[in-house]
Amino acid sequence: MEALRARVVSTLDSMSQPELKEFKFYLRNSGEEPRITMQDLDRAPTTSALADLLVKRYVVSGTPRVLVRVFQRMRRNDLVAEWETASRMNLKRPYENDGPGLERYNMEKPRKAFVMCVKTGRPGAEQDRNIIRNWLEECKFECTSCIDPDEKELMEKLTEFRDGIIGIKDDVSCCLVTLMAHGGKGFIKTVLDERVNLSDIFEMFNNENCPALQEKPKIFVIQACRGGRRDGGVVQADDEPMEVDDSQKKRLPTFSDYYIIYPTQEDHVALRHPKDGSVMIQAIDEVFRQHGKKLHIADFFTQVNNRVVHTDFYMNKNPIKVVLVMESTLTRAVYF
């Protein structure tokens, strides 16, 4: 990423002040999502700050493409040619530039997904379910559905899903569980308004209870409120001795290789449009359409978060902001 940033700075420094003004105008009106606004540009007065804004907003894979579009509108064919070449080179990821390559999980074997969705009393939920199903199918997951379950049915189906993975053991690469429902702090609600603790669900798939998933990614996408607080946004203006186990037998932490995505911060509401569906899941669809399967899952959901954070939402005419929360104990990169 630093190599790309330096290249962007060099390009911007070569431009005159009138050209930079024109560049910012076309950048703001490029049509690329997530949008760069006038306020964003006001907070990036130098070429260095502008380069930071571009690379953070569009990441390594998207920045060359955005620059090509802007330079085409500026009729700077020399820079169009330069950045088209950069785009084709598919510049390396940040950890590939800055040190040893991050090892990847082996994803060649079957991928298993569980999709639970409470549709009753949740307008837009059907749209969410369709988007998630399409995303998972494009990523070659074999999906198990669970629609409008009560607590007994949900836990039985999750247990059956988990036990099925244990049964095939070496023939599974990854497990992904999506839970879409009403919820609160640490729990989701069934169609009968029963509470199910998320920790109980996570525990079902840990290294002790599901040994078939040891050292394999276990991904959880949660679309549910985590409380009742609303974030209106802001105007920008250990010392204990540690013992080391030298046993020759390999040991794993109980909860390693997890990746959990929440649609909002703790104690806060999650947003869902009655027609278009949930904010996070809409953003998942948009990022997947733009980047496909090129991004490591952490980068993928960082881009999803970028879109969500830089979009303004309203409830009862009051502004509300949303930010995703990602928790990870992954030890390798996950590419679908």
Automatic annotation (TrEMBL):
GO terms for molecular function: cysteine-type endopeptidase activity. Keywords: Repeat. Residues 248-336 form the Caspase family p10 domain. SMART domains: CASc, PYRIN. Transmembrane segments: none annotated. InterPro entries: Caspase-like_dom_sf, Caspase_cys_AS, DAPIN, DEATH-like_dom_sf, DED_dom, Pept_C14, Pept_C14_caspase, Pept_C14_p10. PROSITE patterns: CASPASE_CYS (PS01122), CASPASE_P10 (PS50207), CASPASE_P20 (PS50208), DAPIN (PS50824), DED (PS50168). Residues 1-89 form the Pyrin domain. Residues 122-229 form the Caspase family p20 domain. The keyword Repeat applies. GO terms for biological process: positive regulation of neuron apoptotic process; proteolysis. One of its GO terms (cellular component) is cytosol. Residues 3-85 form the DED domain. Belongs to the peptidase C14A family. This is Caspase-14-like isoform X2. It comes from Phascolarctos cinereus. The gene is LOC110209133.
